[in-house]
Amino acid sequence: MRTLAVPCLVKTPKRFSGPTLTISPLSQKTHTHTNTPNPPMAPLKPAAVDYFPSYLPDPDVRVVTSAGNSIPAHSSILGLGSAVLESVLEEKQRMSRREGQMVVRILGVPDDAVSGFMRFLYSSRCTEEEMEKYGVHLLALSHVYSVPLLKQKCTKSLAERLTVENVIDKLQLARLCDAPDLYIKCIKLVAEKFKSVEKMEAWKFLQKHDPRLELEILQFMDEADARKRRTRRHRQEQSLYLELNEAMECLVHICTEGCTDVGPYDMDAIKRKEPCRHFSTCKGLQLLIKHFSSCEKRVNGGCSRCTRMWQLLKLHALMCDRIDLCKVPLCRQFKLRMQQQKRRDDAKWRLLVRKVMNAKAMSSLSLAKRKREAEPRGIKLCHETEEHLRRRT
């Protein structure tokens, strides 16, 4: 009888509250027992072979667990389910000429976890109870023996059961078993609940024995904070650019159509008590225009409100593409002056114009997207209303 040494899971000394598993390398040595008989195996549990279809031939492989229990299996099924087991079994079959039942030892995990692993190789199914009890062991087995579907299921199941108490253990396991999805979810939970996580014994042990992982967690937290700051700053800038774009549109509206108190020179002002319905900044901009028209300090640049009005008029001139038809005051004069005099601050103004135009375009795209998403819901609601009325009649 041949005995094969295959990749197995070996328990390491207890370091934290959750299970700790390490992976031993694939052994290339073949142990052939010629004179010494095989050690006696523990009796087989009936539940271990409940996944055998009746039409399969007799098993030609025995899977031995840490407790010494023997589970019969078929080399063809193991090879189809696991690329590692297929490679190992083919190699040992080529190296040995003796006939007999091969032995595969899966050590370091509970017997029920091995039974669940074997059941998955035969049926591609795993119960919720097995996932809840042995999800950690099944993930390690799926990584060692290269079973992607089981690894995906275990990753999803463990991610759904993450808590502050077990997140450090699951993070180490995800890093060990190369499970990036689980790793990202664990490290996000650690960053989100860091004040609670750092009080756990697992975190204190991590600081002493795995400083590299601690550094990864702290770097992720710093990068997450930096991303939040950048996002917040970007949103504030976009809000400012959108306000400037609205001010430009409102300026054209006042100088072309007129509003409550201010209008073009060739039209009478519209006297209305209600506020403007088109722009939220219309009232403030009208007050600024009225002040600008009557202020005595604007020539010498001593009025901050007039300086702001000058900047709005210059920004409009840079954005306006209707030179001959534009009714905004000083639009043509600003354009001619900027063409004749190239100043150092023109690049900053062009950059500001580009950012305002980009913010306007992005706002238009997001508004169109929201409208497209709202239309199917509105159509569906109309159909449901019509169907309800039809049934009532």
Please name the defining characteristics of this protein:
single chain, 393 residues, mainly alpha, two-stranded antiparallel sheet, 14 helices, disordered N terminus
Low-confidence parts lasting 5 or more residues at pLDDT below 50? 1-48
Written as H for each helix and E for each strand, in order along the chain, the element string is: EEEEEEHHEHHHHHHHHHHHH
pLDDT average, as an integer? 77
Could you say which structural class the secondary elements and strand pairing correspond to? mainly alpha
Q: Tell me the fraction of residues in β-strands, as a range.
A: 5-15%
How large is the count of helical segments? 14
Amino- and carboxy-terminal Cα gap: 82 Å
**Gyration radius, rounded:** 37 Å
Strand count, sense and barrel status of the largest sheet are: 5 strands, mixed
Helix content: 55-70%
Strand segment count: 7
Shape: elongated
Task: Write a brief structural summary.
This protein is mostly helical. The chain is built from 14 helices and seven strands. The strands form two sheets. Strands 4-1-7-5-6 form a five-stranded mixed sheet.
Task: Describe the protein's architecture and organization.
With 393 residues, this protein is mainly α. It is built from 14 helices and 7 strands. The protein has a 5-stranded mixed β-sheet with strand order 4-1-7-5-6. A two-stranded antiparallel sheet has the order 2-3. The protein starts with a strand and ends with a helix.
Strand and helix map with partners:
Layout: E1 2-4, E2 9-11, E3 21-23, E4 31-32, E5 61-64, E6 70-73, H1 75-81, H2 83-95, E7 102-105, H3 111-123, H4 128-144, H5 148-160, H6 167-176, H7 180-192, H8 194-197, H9 201-209, H10 211-256, H11 282-294, H12 304-319, H13 331-340, H14 346-392
Parallel strand pairs: 1-7, 5-7
Antiparallel strand pairs: 1-4, 2-3, 5-6
Helix pairs in contact: 1-2, 3-4, 4-5, 5-7, 6-7, 7-10, 10-14, 12-13
